[in-house]
Amino acid sequence: MIRIFNHYLHRQTLVQVFFDLGLIIVAIFSVVLSQGDGAGQVIPFAASHGLSLAGCMFVINSASGLYQHAHNRSLTESCARALLALLIGLPLAYGIFSLVPTNASHRDLLILAAMGAVAAVMVHRVYAAHPIGQARTRTKILIFGSGAAALSVGNTLRASDPHAQVVGYFPGPNEDRSEVPRGEVIESRGSLTETALHLGVDEIVVALSERRGGSMPLRQLLDCKLYGIKVVDIATHFEKTLAQIKISHVNAGWLVFGDGFNQGAFRSAVKRLFDIVFSSAILIVSAPIMLLTALVVKLESKGPVFYRQERVGQNGAVFDVVKFRSMRTDAEKDGKPVWATKNDDRVTKVGRFIRKVRIDELPQLINVLKGEMSLVGPRPERAFFVDELVAKIPYYAVRHSVKPGVTGWAQVRYEYGSTIEDSVEKLQYDLYYVKNHTLFLDLLILLETVAVVLTGKGAR
């Protein structure tokens, strides 16, 4: 894993991104340089157009979810995503290189090279997601511990990280009860350091269930680190592997003394400028869609077009969120707040569609312009539920240290949920965002939001 602007990314993901961008640039320049004497005049234009196409394809592939790990995605789904990206990328390549100032034959060659490179990138995206007979470079990880926490780490790695190889579990000195399969317990070859070096381990995850005096061999762990082996605690492991802050494995000290949670005036000013510019642009572009939505909502059922509801914002401030009405007007006729569920029968036919493609959220851009919300942040919750969740879930109030968002890290990473348990899962993503949020992460979330809308997946 590599940390870029506070966000963890797989090294292989970055390699794939640069390979795809390089493929486009190499294809363009191969055609230009084959033109002989006329190449010098075309190079500056080909370079700028090639970089523009490469940048656009990065955005398209990211928005299509083609750079996300595909371990739970079928080959058919990957092909469908690649086809969608191809249908957008081919006309884009044609349009961009139609503008290159050169003779017709050279321009036609450049257009063919650009379109061919786009097609090659799509084939590579599918192949990289579902390699056949391809050896993956895998990180060897030793888990220090053999209890329930260690088992949780091992299961998480196998389920979520195809680039990780769990070499086994090294029991702690005071762990009386093992929860891991006996065949995966590593036979000691001396000290922890000697065992890790013998196995060629790249990383050690400390997941001890018992930390009484003598359980943590700090000198041995330091020696491992001095030999170039990464050593991380269980909370950091989940943070970088799942992009979550697991509240079952963190304490206040880890949150206080660790890095992150940097708000600051400059960060707030940049985020506010970003919100104003992008929300204004989205409002202008989506104005026809919003007008049509208002019309069909009004025609389908009696009641107001917009739905206003009190939500809790930054620092506990209460504000009225604005959405297109997607439920019947008597959705809460007894006056008691009710969790919205995945297949809620209170949702109208039009409401079901606009909720699926997130059109109902567009009026919240007004809340963004007013400064009550941000484009990206934890979703705002109703005060009734906030009081309940704060009382039952540790650190829940931390999510109110930033402005709530129209979309958020939990919304693009977790399926729809309407229980206390679901709120815990989403909180763990929200805590990761609050701890590590940057403009870079905001842009990634916006791109993943597009992928969620296109596929109809994700939480509300």
Computed Rg: 26 Å
Number of domains: 3
Number of helices: 16
State the helicity in percent bands.
40-55%
State the end-to-end CA separation: 29 Å
List how many beta strands DSSP finds.
10
Protein name: TIGR03013 family PEP-CTERM/XrtA system glycosyltransferase
Pfam families: Bac_transf
Subcellular location: Membrane
Organism: Paucibacter sediminis
In short:
Belongs to the bacterial sugar transferase family. The protein has 16 helices and 10 strands.
Fold and architecture overview:
The chain has helices spanning 11-33, 39-63, 75-97, 104-129, 148-160, 192-199, 218-226, 234-242, 252-257, 265-300, 349-356, 364-370, 383-392, 409-413, 420-436, 439-455, and strands spanning 2-4, 7-9, 139-144, 164-170, 203-206, 230-233, 306-312, 318-324, 374-376, 405-407. 53% of the residues lie in helices and 10% in strands. It folds into three domains: 2-129, no CATH class; 139-242, NAD(P)-binding Rossmann-like Domain (Rossmann fold, 3-Layer(aba) Sandwich); 265-330 and 338-455, no CATH class. A four-stranded parallel β-sheet has the order 4-3-5-6, sandwiched between helices. Strands 1-2 form a two-stranded antiparallel ribbon. The model has no long low-confidence stretch (mean pLDDT 86). It is globular. Helix 2 packs antiparallel against helix 3 and helix 5 runs parallel beside helix 8. It is built from 16 helices and ten strands. The chain has 460 residues and is an alpha/beta fold.
